[in-house]
Design goal:
α1 runs parallel beside α3 and α5 runs antiparallel to α6. The chain has 9 helices and 14 strands. It is globular and about 55 Å long. It has one domain: Ribonuclease Z/Hydroxyacylglutathione hydrolase-like (Metallo-beta-lactamase, Chain A, 4-Layer Sandwich). The chain starts with a strand and ends with a helix. It is α/β, with parallel strands linked by helices. It is 34% helix and 24% strand. Bound molecules: zinc ion.
Length: 256
């Protein structure tokens, strides 16, 4: 548990994260949407970047890749070119089930298609930390740009298998919007009500609502709760299967 984690905001609502293993003096950065923000965060921490981990090809995760690489010499690890647009500058392509070392910490690669087809999440089992990209958000999930609802439901079902105490870093501060939507489909969920109130207070003080834990998401995130009877009742879908409920939730969230 010696890993140090520093989250920093960039663009309008993105989060980047630096990971630092003091014992080996190894540092990684998750995503590269804004080179200046990443380099400033590295300088503030006085850490030297070794690894740049890319979750998916969207510009708000990759636009600063070449500049960060040039400036730091970091090795870039990211999705294997496949059905999504290829990402220029990747040194080590990864796919589902791969793993690599960040200092003393093992990083496991979990492919979670849905938002995009190339989406990779990075899980550090010894440290209990997941970088969920634009797949699993705090009280929400990513919009379906390339994958199907079935892809995303499968991906989220895989993430649900991680230990409940797992700390989840997602890539955007979408929590208040997500929380409002969650309440619209799960209005009587006390844990959700409490959590939305806490998130409102954090945001009123300009503090991040990210990270969260898997236990919190399991209790309050409607996209992990397609099997919940109260949500199904609110939707009028008591007899439907999980995919139909999930699809309806995702469509309603698109219009929320
Ligand atoms: Zn994205």
């Amino acid at each position: 548990m010696s890993l140090k984690i520093h989250q920093f905001p960039y663009l309008s609502d993105n989060y980047g994260v630096l990971l630092h293993d003091p014992s080996s003096n190894t540092t990684a950065c998750v995503d590269a949407g804004d080179a200046e923000a990443a380099i400033k965060a590295l300088e503030q921490q006085n850490w030297t970047l070794d690894l740049l981990l890319i979750t998916h090809h969207h510009a708000d995760h990759t636009a600063g890749l070449e500049q960060i690489k040039q400036k730091t010499g970091a090795r870039v690890i990211g999705p294997k070119a496949g059905a999504s647009a290829a990402i220029a500058g990747i040194d080590q392509e990864v796919q589902d089930g791969d793993s690599f070392q960040l200092g003393k910490s093992e990083v496991q690669v979990i492919h979670t298609p849905g938002h995009t087809l190339d989406m990779m999440n990075y899980y550090l089992p010894q440290d209990g930390v997941l970088f969920s990209g634009d797949t699993l958000f705090t009280m929400g999930c990513g919009r379906l740009f390339e994958g199907t609802a079935a892809n995303m439901l499968d991906s989220l079902n895989r993430l649900k298998q991680l230990p409940q105490q797992t700390t989840i870093y997602c890539s955007h501060e979408y929590t208040l919007h997500n929380g409002g939507f969650a309440l619209s489909v799960d209005p009587d969920n006390i844990e959700l009500q409490v959590r939305v109130a806490a998130a409102e207070e954090l945001r009123a003080n300009n503090l991040p609502t990210v990270p969260s834990t898997m236990a919190e998401e399991l209790a309050t995130n409607p996209f992990l709760r397609a099997d919940d009877e109260a949500i199904r009742k609110t939707l009028g879908m008591e007899g439907a299967d999980d995919l139909a409920v999930f699809t309806e939730l995702r469509e309603r969230r698109n219009n929320a």
